[in-house]
Write a structure and sequence with these properties.
This protein is an alpha/beta fold. It is 42% helix and 14% strand. The strands form two sheets. A seven-stranded parallel β-sheet has the order 3-2-1-4-5-6-7, with helices on both faces. It has a six-stranded parallel β-sheet with strand order 10-9-8-11-12-13, with helices on both faces.
């Protein structure tokens, strides 16, 4: 089974949950002995783990013929891919793109991030996808999130192979309903052209059916999972260094994640437990606003804003925490509470999150209910038996939520769409 996947992020260079989910799912699927995955991203850095799949950098695929020799290509691209593949791609340039601004190898440049000209990069990605689809044989095309839906559609048109799209989030989640029409149209177009749609939760499935008018029979939920902790992460000591109870928020500090509810609840907790400390780890457009809100509530001395964290840093913060909180307003899934529970950290999540559908041993509150959120925080840091129960049962629960199982569900969807074709 050859799957041609289009993604936007891949560890260790990630900017959000999309890269984490892409890695976990492909690793889980690679355990199937006949699974052959080619995973495309805008810009690889050369240090990605390619032991279980093949990564293609869209920025290394030519769309304009350049007369270059093997030694030069090897010098320029050898760190990222087999140089012969460059020439294979070059043989499949399908139109005259000489009017486009390309580099010395005839390739488009990509930021590998979420730049201001994101819509242009998405369009460029779909142009390059035409070359890739003509070169790499596949049985099924799998596009992750709206950024790659146009690429997936183009690849489907070129190959005639079935297209599966993976909805990790919709613009309804990111914008609290204030939807960007350009993004909505890309999402809707991707769903309309897809042979099947995978959503990361039933919550997202409902959105896809109701807001994007998709046939329920075409939409299947495959919940996310977590990677087992590596020996390196298991070896991280608890560096807390304070006797105070530590309550942590970790994620993008944006409207979608509900950071203001965390700050307001923290102010209520501190009236009853003045020795609690709060960490807000992450970055985002609401960070300055949250710093000001903490100051206006006179709790700045109990608050720590760490900025963006990645990789090992995330687990160092989790292991130094007594409670993890995810008060998201609309969270398609939310992998971070599972990561916290793996570390034995009791978690509080909003009822408006997809992971609430599969977690029995996390406390659940409505994101807007600051009183309930404060009560939950206070209870866990005050009652040791409750903390211990959530710690032990929560860890046991998430240790059974495996990417391998998610991968098997995706494989059944592949088999179904190929059979239907």
């Amino acid at each position: 089974m050859k799957a041609l996947m289009f993604g936007w992020e891949f560890p260790p260079h990630i900017l959000g949950g999309l890269g984490t989910a892409s890695y976990g799912l492909t690793r889980g699927m690679a355990l199937q002995p006949d699974m052959d995955i080619t995973f495309c991203i805008p810009k690889p850095w050369g240090d990605e783990d390619q032991s279980f799949l093949k990564i293609i950098g869209v920025n290394n695929v030519p769309i304009v013929w350049r007369d270059v020799n093997m030694d030069y290509v090897k010098e320029r691209l050898g760190k990222f891919m087999d140089p012969q593949l460059y020439f294979d791609f070059r043989n499949n340039i399908y139109a005259d793109f000489s009017y486009r601004h390309v580099n010395d190898l005839g390739c488009l440049e990509f930021s590998g991030r979420y730049p201001d000209n994101l819509l242009e990069e998405i369009n460029n990605y779909s142009i390059v996808a035409g070359v890739i689809a003509r070169t790499i044989p596949c049985d099924v095309i799998h596009a992750h999130d709206w950024l790659t839906y146009p690429a997936g559609i183009h690849a489907k048109q070129v190959t005639g192979k079935p297209l599966v799209i993976h909805v990790h989030a919709t613009d309804y989640d990111r914008s609290r309903g204030n939807v960007n029409p350009d993004v909505y149209n890309i999402e809707k177009n991707g769903m309309d052209h897809a042979d099947h749609i995978i959503t990361v939760s039933n919550l997202t499935r409902q959105t896809v059916i109701e807001k994007y008018h998709q046939d329920p029979a075409k939409v299947t939920t495959v919940h996310n999972a977590v990677e087992p902790l590596s020996p390196e992460i298991l070896a991280i000591p608890d560096k807390k260094g304070v006797k105070d109870k530590v309550i942590t928020f970790l994620g993008r500090i944006t409207m979608q994640k509900g950071p203001e509810y965390f700050v307001e609840a923290a102010a209520k907790v501190l009236k009853r437990a003045p020795h609690a400390r709060f960490i807000m780890a992450g970055s985002g457009d609401m960070m300055d606003q949250m710093i000001r809100l903490a100051a206006s509530r006179n709790i700045s001395d109990r608050f720590h804003f760490t900025g963006f964290m990645r990789g090992k840093q995330v687990y160092e913060v989790l292991k130094a925490s007594d409670v993890y909180v995810m008060p998201s307003v609309s969270e398609p899934f939310g992998i971070s509470p599972l990561e916290a529970m793996q570390c034995g950290v009791p978690s509080i999540i909003s009822k408006q999150s997809g992971c609430a559908e599969i977690l029995n041993y996390a406390m659940k509150v409505d994101y807007w209910d600051i009183e309930a959120l404060a009560d939950a925080m206070y209870s866990i840091i005050t009652y040791s038996a409750m903390h211990e129960f959530l710690k032990v049962e929560g860890k046991r629960e998430v240790d059974e939520i495996k990417w391998e199982y998610a991968g098997q569900k995706v494989r059944r969807i592949y088999d179904m769409v190929i059979g239907n074709k």
